[in-house]
Amino acid sequence: MITNTDKGWRKKGLAIVLLLMSFALPQKNKITVYLIGDSTMADKEVIAYPETGWGMPFHYFFDSTVTVDNRAKNGRSTRSFIAEDRWQPVVDNLREGDYVLIQFGHNDEVPTKKTYTTLGNFTANLEKFVNESRSKKAIPVLITPVARRKFDSTGKIEETHAAYTQLVKDVAVKLHVPLIDLDKESQELVQQFGPETSKYLYNYLAPGENPHYPEGRSDDTHFSELGARKMAEIVLHDIKNLHLELADHIRVVKQKEKK
Amino acid sequence: MTKLNRNFKFLRNPGHVPLPWERGWGEAFKYKSLFKNISLITLITLISFIPPIKKKTSIWMIGDSTMCLYDSSRFPLTGWGMPFAEYFDSTVTVENKAKGGRSTRTFIAENRWQPIVDNLSNGDYVLIQFGHNDESESYPDRYTPPEDYRKNLVKFIIESRDKKAIPVLLTPVSRRKFDSAGNALETHAVYSKVVHEVADQYKVSLIDLDQMSIALLQEYGPENSKLLFMQLEPGENPDYPLGIHDNTHFNAHGARHVAELVLEGMKNLHLALADRIIKGKFKSK
Question: Has B249 been annotated as catalytic?
Fold first, then answer.
């Protein structure tokens, strides 16, 4: 037997449920951001610290809906990354809405390296990454190779990836891929720091300063914690500027005003 | 049939000499002493090839926000104890018990010290770095007058030594402060002096982190030294949307540099612990 009182409560219950639902935030899907690239992006072993890939601080910028899966590996070119079967497992794992951030060049462009990749093959490999990502409904993002620290005698930074950076841009235009021109933007940052101060961005260590590098280190390619974080911040800003959906997953922190 | 074979085995093979395990126990014992001697010699020979095993040691870190661990949600904020832990071999465990906002007084009052004492083992180290909050007269809930600061440091030392642990005193790491001529200034004068006095009186190993970090700041200079601290422009980093200009707390880069100074201080003191600092194999590039 249903009394009038029961009916009343049912209506009220329904109203309360609807009211609560209106407050529930739209559910964000879990997404994975795959990073594929070389040593400038890769996670490092503790024994190599303070050398830091920009993919390491990049982990910290997103909310809990995002998993950053850094597959970048020291010394790899597009060619060796594919040949060592590092790409196919990424493809196999890709799901709709995932991202693939692609940054190669450092090891592709050096003819004396075993990993050397001809201009034509570099383009073909980038197109492979883009097309196969899209075949899984994932979103590829192309990134030009991050700058080396190289200044001319007047203190002006020099382009060190000219040919391969251009190829990345060409593929981005041809296949309508979002592009982060990290080469250009990191050059601007290094220029702003200048010839001396920019050493703080890279893995520069005096002899005896750091137990991992007893002889010291003067590395114009690989970053310190500072440089890696600054590069990650550039990539993050461009994700916002490109209005990628991923930007909605950057974590929002309510910062307390400092006393 | 089987039974018969076993019982009459020797009769069926008259030329067979019984093997040790085919004889009774009395026979076997004859061989035992011989085996014993051989195995003993082998064992001693093997042991002589094994490098001496280092005893496991813990480093207990007590201090404030400049030393403590931080959650990644506050990145790039980094206590110097975080990178410090990355430079020891596998015989060392770093127990970073430092806590933001704590003075020697509140660290003890909140019962953060006693649990460490309870867990100290013979040969452990206790790294003691306080001062930032002890000296802050504007925070009565933290402030500790110099005399109480001294007593608390002495307490840490005596109670560490009671457990046969080795206390190491550190003067408080410097804040970033320059005069108009670009000289890095002393920011902990009174409290650093107390640390020195206690170290002298009780013959405690001292790392003068205050002076070492002032030298580091001077090397970087007034402008570049910001690169060591939590200095972010508004919008630069999602964790600090309003930006931050903090001259006390380190970013990852600064924390590592401070950790390097402490490691250097340990080597200079010839602490046994310094032998357990990693000897990396990377070449200068």
Answer: yes
Phi/psi at A183 (5° precision): -55, -55
Q: Are A28 and A97 a contacting pair, CB within 8 Å?
A: no
CA A225/CA B86 separation, integer angstroms? 14
Q: Which of A174, A172, A195, A197 is nearest to A182 (CA)?
A: A172
Residue B233 among the catalytic residues: yes
Domain ranges of chain A: 28-249
Beta strands in chain A (DSSP E): 31-37, 66-70, 99-103, 139-143, 179-180, 202-205, 217-223
Q: Convert the pLDDT of each residue in A97-132 to its tens digit.
A: 999 999 999 999 999 999 999 999 999 999 999 999
Same domain, B40 and B73: no
- The CATH label, of 1.10.3210.10, 3.30.200.20, 3.30.70.1660, 3.40.50.1110, for the domain at A28-249 is 3.40.50.1110
The pTM of this model reads: 0.84
Question: What ipTM was estimated for this complex?
Answer: 0.86
Contacts with A212 from chain B: Cβ below 8 Å: 87, 278, 280, 282
B188 annotated active-site = no
pLDDT digits (tens, 9 = 90+) for B199-240: 999 999 999 999 999 999 999 999 999 999 999 999 999 999
Question: How close B140 gets to chain A, by Cα (Å)?
Answer: 15
Q: Both ends of chain A: CA-CA distance in Å?
A: 64
How many residues belong to chain A? 259
Q: Is B229 inside a domain boundary?
A: yes
Q: Do B219 and B257 touch, CB atoms closer than 8 A?
A: no
Contact by Cβ (8 Å): B89, B59: no
Cβ contacts (< 8 Å) between B94 and chain A: which residues? Answer: none
Q: What is the distance in angstroms between the Cα of A175 and the nearest Cα belonging to chain B?
A: 31
